[in-house]
Design brief:
This protein has 460 residues and is α/β, with parallel strands linked by helices. Helices cover 49% and strands 15% of the residues.
């Protein structure tokens, strides 16, 4: 696979592009992301599904700009797909030919089930493993994928979309008919999970607004978890709000005309299937398309116990990989020997070991205050496959790995995301001990670790 790959996704509402760079076999990071709200399906649903000339021109202009950006990044491969807007368009072939002739870009129209599957494998691989159903509310359609652990077992596509419902119902102020239309479409879904993973612009816009209203302490959307009651309450406010109230609720003006149709779809879905838990995904079709290429010989799944975010940090920020491995090994043995005595729950074992492995990543930026640099790197970069609680625990252990205790104000600020203070303090002490045992930077463990553990058990 090419070192740098651009992925372009042409949706009903927006055209988006991401540029990824591989750092090793399965590790990658985002180099660039851009979005153009071209509304390629604008006025098409009320005109027999024909893409309008102005909308086509906007799309072509955006794609031309995207290709220029991709060239500046020396991209070696471009993956480009179109979804509902072009699936529905009677003149889609003419538009695709126009793009090929003018821009030398080939675009593949994917069906709804494939679109749902791509969003599903992105969530299955890049969020904490769970059983859930994804919901991706787009401009022309809504895609759902059933996830069981690392696998996507079912994929659905429904003719429910924000632009579609806006033009068919909301522009005519016929909300009752829109509700019946949504409920009828939902009858074709077979959902047993009470956990949904929200993909796409509508869900992210609502989640961002809720995060701001709740003064959530962690500035990260991907992996944000909350309950269905919070979403239903917020949805009800959105549906009756005027433009000024939408702004006060945290909705951007570019979404004023489509946020209500998307909100109604989501609310009916939550109520219809009695959803309890929601998780916000920062990844979707674009990431799924990239992963389907990256993991094409691995059944679209990362190898067991492999995490692309951890690997990326090791590739780019671990200067002494031998010391990193020794730290992880020492941390594992100390944790296994002492966690019961110290009152630390075993559920924190994996985070403790990863924190040890990444404890010195901050030195790649500057030796002094490396613990602070590492803290910020973890908070911003360690996201794929981790919950917010796991990220914050790892970041906190790294931030306070030197002499000072975890500060009281830090514990209070992140109280919702951190372990209980007594457990956190015990882990912090154990983490410092791991560092002290290896402070002389041996090339291999040159002391009797079992004897050291025995001494510690006596002293503690």
């Amino acid at each position: 696979m090419a070192k740098r790959t651009a992925v372009i996704d042409i949706g009903s509402n927006s055209v988006r592009m991401v540029v990824y760079e591989k750092t090793s076999r399965f590790a990658f990071h985002l180099l660039h992301e851009i979005k153009a709200p071209v509304r390629i399906s604008e006025n098409s649903y009320e005109n027999g599904g024909v893409l309008q000339e102005d909308a086509q021109k906007r799309a072509i202009l955006a794609l031309k700009n995207f290709l220029s950006i991709a060239k500046s990044y020396k991209v070696r491969k471009i993956l480009s797909v179109a979804t509902s807007a072009l699936r529905d368009a009677s003149n889609a072939k003419e538009f695709l030919k126009r793009v090929r002739d003018e821009l030398k870009l080939s675009i593949k129209i994917i069906d709804g089930e494939r679109e749902a599957y791509l969003g599903g494998i992105a969530c299955a691989n890049l969020l904490s493993r769970s059983e859930a159903i994804t919901i991706d509310i787009g401009g022309g359609s809504t895609e759902c994928a059933v996830i069981n652990g690392a696998k996507v077992t079912q994929a659905y596509s429904l003719n429910l979309g924000t632009v579609r419902l806006k033009e068919l119902f909301f522009d005519k102020d016929d909300i009752d008919s829109a509700t019946k239309y949504i409920d009828k479409a939902l009858e074709s879904l077979h959902v047993t999970s009470t956990h949904i993973i929200g993909v796409g612009g509508t869900f992210r816009a609502l989640s961002k607004a809720i995060i701001r209203q709740e003064s959530y302490p962690f500035d990260k959307l991907h992996g944000y978890e909350f309950d269905a009651v919070s979403m239903i309450d917020f949805c009800e406010k959105i549906l009756v709000a005027d433009k000024k109230e939408l702004k006060n609720l945290g909705i951007k003006s570019s979404r004023f005309d489509i946020i209500k149709p998307g909100t109604l779809i989501l609310m009916r879905f939550i109520k219809h299937f009695n959803i309890k838990k929601l998780t916000t995904s920062g990844v979707g079709v674009r990431e799924g398309l990239y992963l389907s290429d990256l993991l094409r010989n691995n059944r679209d799944i990362f190898p067991a116990n492999y995490n692309p975010s951890v690997r990326y940090l090791i590739d780019n920020h671990v200067i002494d990989k031998n010391h990193s491995n020794l730290s992880a090994r020492t941390a594992r043995e100390l944790f296994d020997a002492l966690h019961v005595k110290l009152g630390i729950d075993r559920e924190y074992r994996s985070c403790f070991i990863i924190a040890a492995k990444l404890s010195k990543i901050g030195t790649s930026l500057h030796f002094y205050s490396y613990h602070q640099h590492g803290y910020y790197l973890i908070k911003s970069t360690l996201e794929y496959g981790f919950t917010h609680k796991e990220i914050m625990l790892i970041a906190t252990l790294i931030r306070y790995q030197k002499r000072e205790e975890v500060k009281k104000e830090h514990k209070l600020r992140y109280e919702k995301l951190l372990p209980k203070p007594k457990s956190l303090d015990a882990m912090s002490r154990l983490f410092k001990l791991t560092n002290e045992l290896l402070s002389h930077h041996p090339r291999e463990i040159d002391f009797d670790l079992e004897k050291a553990i025995g001494t510690l058990c006596t002293d503690l």
